[in-house]
Specification:
By secondary structure, the chain is mainly alpha-helical. It is 59% helix and 2% strand.
Length: 279
């Protein structure tokens, strides 16, 4: 919002560069490395390893949620079909532990379908799977939503040239190695931009605008947790499991809760509910 308001002082329309990662395979690196690690496991042993990891996950106490969840996620991802295996990796990389999800809410919930539930048929390789899921989920639901909200708050018109449907359709038909060679991401885009922007600028480490949310919530913004995540406020919607979330919040305040982003999401829901639903 601050950036949009600053731009608005000088321009009515602005060009944004969102979609470069999503169109030119810029988000494939980590999951691709994980896929290569799983590929080291012989196909003949994957079934046995899956059962071993599932048993380890079941025996791991909930006091160690990260280990418990990772063991189950790796087990669920293992497959002799590498496309299916990558699809499982993508799905689990965005998931929270089942033993948390089933206790967040007061009543049993029904999961809504997402692109992660789709088939991996039709994809040429594992990189295309990562790119497709990111394009369908992260780009519209996170990146573009934030940019649009910021622009609307300043009455600024934003344009996304990289997401021109002609560019997206053309790049989607090109061989994957044009954009990702296993090491360098957005290879084709970098080659084009290097003709106009100094390479020293392009090769710098990526820097985002991520605010230190959790430092704030444990510091000067801690009053928001006290106001919106107390027992009375949590019970108001009739949706959330108040006792369980209170225990998570206590661990969060002591920096002992691994899935910190859950607290932020619950806080956002609570603030929305208090602003728009309570009369």
């Amino acid at each position: 919002m601050l950036v949009s308001r600053l731009i608005k002082k000088h321009f009515k329309i602005a060009l944004f560069a969102d979609g470069g990662d999503h169109v030119f395979h810029g988000r494939a690196n980590v999951l691709y490395r994980n896929q290569l690690l799983l590929n080291r496991v012989p196909d003949a042993l994957k079934g046995s390893l899956r059962m071993l990891l599932l048993s380890a996950s079941n025996l791991t106490p909930r006091a160690w949620p990260q280990l418990k969840h990772k063991s189950k996620s790796i087990a669920a991802s293992l497959s002799r079909n590498h496309l299916v295996q990558m699809g499982n990796l993508v799905r689990d990389s965005y998931s929270y532990p089942d033993f948390y999800l089933e206790r967040f809410f007061r009543d049993k919930t029904t999961e809504l379908p997402t692109p992660f539930d789709g088939s991996t048929e039709g994809y040429q390789n594992v990189i295309d799977i990562v790119t497709a899921f990111e394009f369908k989920m992260n780009l519209p639901d996170c990146i573009l939503a934030k940019v649009e909200h910021g622009n609307m708050s300043a009455s600024l018109h934003g344009r996304e040239p990289i997401l021109d449907h002609r560019i997206v359709e053309y790049v989607a038909q090109l061989p994957t190695e044009y954009s990702y060679d296993g090491t360098t991401k957005k290879l084709m885009l970098r080659s084009i931009v290097n003709d106009y922007v100094p390479k020293s600028l392009m090769d710098r480490p990526k820097q985002g605008f991520s605010p230190p949310i959790h430092n704030w919530l444990r510091g000067e913004l801690s009053y928001l947790l006290d106001e919106y995540l107390n027992d009375k406020a949590l019970s108001a919607s009739g949706v959330l499991n108040t006792k369980f979330i209170s225990r998570m919040l206590d661990r969060y305040k002591k920096s002992k809760f691994y899935y910190s982003n859950v607290i932020w999401r619950i806080l956002m829901f609570q603030m929305w509910y208090a602003r728009w639903m309570k009369q």
